[in-house]
Amino acid sequence: MKKILAVVLSLVLMLSSFALLASAVQYNDIPCVIVPGIGQSRAWLVDENGEYVLNDSGEKIHCFPGNFDVQKILSDVAAPLATSVATQSDAGLSEALCASLEKAFEMNKTDDNAVPCGLVNVETYPHSLAECTDEQRQYIFDCIPMQRMGETIGFENMYYYAYNSFGNAIDMINGLYDFIQMVKQQTGKDKVNIIPISMGGALFNGLMDLHPEVANDLHRIIFVVPALNGSLIVSDIFERELAFLDADYLYSDFFDGILGESNASLIEVAIRVLPKDVLMSVLNNAVDMLIEKVFANCTGLWMLVPNNHYSKCVKNVLSDKSKAEVKRQTDIYHNAQSNSNKNILKFKSQGVEIFDVLGYDVPLYNVGNSWNSENADGVIHTFSTSIGAKMANVGETLPKDYKQQNPYCKPVKPVGFFERLMGAPSNTVVQCSDPSHNHISPDRVVDASTGLLPDHTFYFDNQPHATANQNDIIMKLCCELVETDRIKDVFTDENYPQFNVGRATKDLREKLLPAAEGVDTSALSEADRNELEQAVNDANAMLSRTIAVEGEAPAVEQRLRSILEKVGAVEAQGSALDSISPMVKLISNTLLEVGGANGFSDIPQELISKITGGNGEENPSENTDNGNSAQPANNTPAVTPTNTSTGTIPSGTAANNPKTTGDVSTGIYVSVAAFAAFSALATYKLKKKKEE
Ligand SMILES: [Zn+2]
C-alpha cells in the first residue's frame, strides 16, 4: 500500500513539474527593431576632420534640435537688446537674434539638393544592444525604457535604429530597410518585429511604400504614438500659422501652455520691456529665418506634414524654382504617406500582425493655431496616431446620440460588388471581427471603430506624447506584444484593454522607490516607518497593475515623496521662485487687464502711474483698490486701450518721445529691465534645475 502511495505521489510530483514547465512562458526569439522618435538619436557636432567638437567642460556637443549655448545667445543679443529697450525701437535686435539663432541651428541646415550640410555625426548601432557599451544601452533605455525585453528575448535580439532627425527622408527610409536586412543577417532569422515610435511611424510609411517587399521580413509591427499622418504643429510652422505671432495671445495665454502659469507670468512681464511692434517684428523675423534657412529644405521634417496640408505647405515654402529637387523628394514621401492606409492593409493581408498604441485627450502644444482644433496627445493630433479614428475634441465627448460607425466592421451579410462601389468595405478592409464589439471609449471621446485597426489599437486617456515612454504600462504592453504572440488583439487580455488611462511613473520607479530602499528604517519613529512601508506598498501594488486609474499615479507618488522628504531621504521640491511667483502672476494679470497686449511704453502714461500707485491725479482710494483686488477696478475697461489689434501706439507715450517722459517711467524702465533680466535668468535656472 505504501509502495503504491509512493508511486502515485511521485507520479503526481512528476506531472506537476511537467505542468510547471508547460506553464513557463516561451519567449519569441524573433529579433526586435526599435525605430525611435524625433530627437531620440544622438547627433554630435564634429569639425571638418570628423573630430568631435568639445564644449568648455570637455564634453561632446549634442545637435538636437540645435546647439543652444544660452549664455552665448544672451551675450550676442544683450547689447542690441539694451539699446532697443532704451530707444524703444528695433536697434539691431532682430538682426542679432536671427544671427545667433541661425548659428545655433547651423549644423542642422540642408542644402537645395535636400542634402544635410552640417557637420554632424549620428551615433548609430549597427549591431545588437548586447554589443552596445553600457553607456549606450543606458542612453537607449533612457529614450525607450524597454529593458525588460532584453531579459526575455535577449539583448542580442534587440536593435535600435538611430537616425538624424534633421536628415534626408529618403536616406533615412533606405537606411531602415538596410538595417532590417542587417538584423536578419546578423541573427540568422528570416523575420523581425518592429516598433516604430512617433517620427519612426513616419519613416515606416516610407518603408512600406518604397520597399514593399519588406512585408516578407516582418512578423509584427507595433506602432507607438506614430506620426503616420504627420503633426499639425509642423504644418502650422510651414504655413506660418503660429500662435505666438498673434500679440493678444502672446501677452496672455501663450506662455502658460509652454512654461506653466507661474513661469509664464515672469516672461509675460519681461517681454513688455519692448514695444509690441518691435517685439512682433523680432519674432516674425526669427520665424522667417528658421523656416527659410533651417526647416524648408529638411525632407525629414517634411515627413511630419499632414497629408491634407501638404499642398499648402509646398506653396508657402517650396514654390521657388531653386526648391525643385527638395520638392521632388518631398513628393515621393507625400505619395508614400498618401498610400499609408492601403499599405498597412496590404501588409496585414500578407500575414504581418499590426498593432497601434497611442494617447489622447491632451491638447497640442499651443505653438500653432491648430492647437485646439482636434484631439491630440500634445505633439500629434490623434487622427494621425490612431490611423483615422473619429474623436471628440479634448474636453468634449461624442454627441449623446452618437452611434459607433463600424466602417471596418464585418458586414452582417456578404458585401457584393455594387455595395463596395457604394463605399461598403471589401473583405480586405474588414478589420473588426465582430459587429457587437463596443469600440466607444468609456469616457465617450473615442470611436475606435473608425480607426483603421479597431481590434488592434490601444488608447490611453490623458497620455501626453512626451511622456509615453514614462508610462510603464505602455512599455510593458509593447514588450508583451513582441515577446510572445499571446496577445492577439485588444480583447485577448483584460489586463491590457482597448481603453486605458495614461500615467507617468518614471520618478516613482527610478528615484523614489530606490530612495525608499536606501532608508535605514531602524532610525525612524514607528509612525514614519509605518507610513513609509504603506507608501512603498501602495506604489508597488499600483505598478503591478496594468490598468491605470485617473489620478492614482500622482497621488501614490506624492504620498511616497512626502514621507521620503520628511525622513530626509529625498530633497524637498520647490524653489525660491515659487514664493515670488504668485506676486509676479498678479503683476502680469494686472498689466494685461490694464495695459492690454502691449509693451510698457505702449501703455498710456496715466495708466502707468495708476499701476505703480500713481503720482498722478487719481484719487487714492482707487489706487488702494487696484493694489488689493486681484480683479482690477471695475472702471478699467473704459480706459483700456482698444487699439491692441491694430498695433497703433497711442500718442503721447514714451515710445513716441522717450526724452520727454517723466521720471516715473524712466524709473519703471530701469526697474523693469532689471526685473526682466532677473526673470529671464531665474526662468533659465529653474528650467536647468528641472532638467537635472
Ligand atoms: Zn471590433
Helices and strands in order, then pairings?
Elements: H1 2-23, E1 32-35, E2 43-45, H2 70-87, H3 93-105, E3 120-122, H4 134-143, H5 147-154, E4 158-160, H6 169-187, E5 192-196, H7 199-210, E6 218-224, H8 232-238, H9 247-259, H10 261-270, H11 276-295, H12 299-302, H13 310-317, H14 324-338, H15 340-349, E7 353-360, H16 382-385, E8 390-391, H17 417-421, E9 446-447, E10 457-461, H18 472-483, E11 499-501, H19 506-517, H20 526-544, H21 552-566, H22 576-595, H23 605-611, H24 620-628, H25 636-639, H26 663-691
Zinc ion binds at residues 432-434, 437, 439, 454-455.
Account of the 3D structure:
Helix 7 links the parallel strand 5 (192-196) and strand 6 (218-224). The protein is globular. It has 26 helices and 11 strands. The chain has helices at residues 2-23, 70-87, 93-105, 134-143, 147-154, 169-187, 199-210, 232-238, 247-259, 261-270, 276-295, 299-302, 310-317, 324-338, 340-349, 382-385, 417-421, 472-483, 506-517, 526-544, 552-566, 576-595, 605-611, 620-628, 636-639, 663-691; strands at residues 32-35, 43-45, 120-122, 158-160, 192-196, 218-224, 353-360, 390-391, 446-447, 457-461, 499-501. The termini are far apart. It has a 7-stranded parallel β-sheet with strand order 4-1-5-6-7-10-11, sandwiched between helices. The protein has a domain at 26-42 and 123-500: Rossmann fold, CATH 3.40.50. The chain is 47% helix and 7% strand. Zinc ion binds at residues 432-434, 437, 439, 454-455.
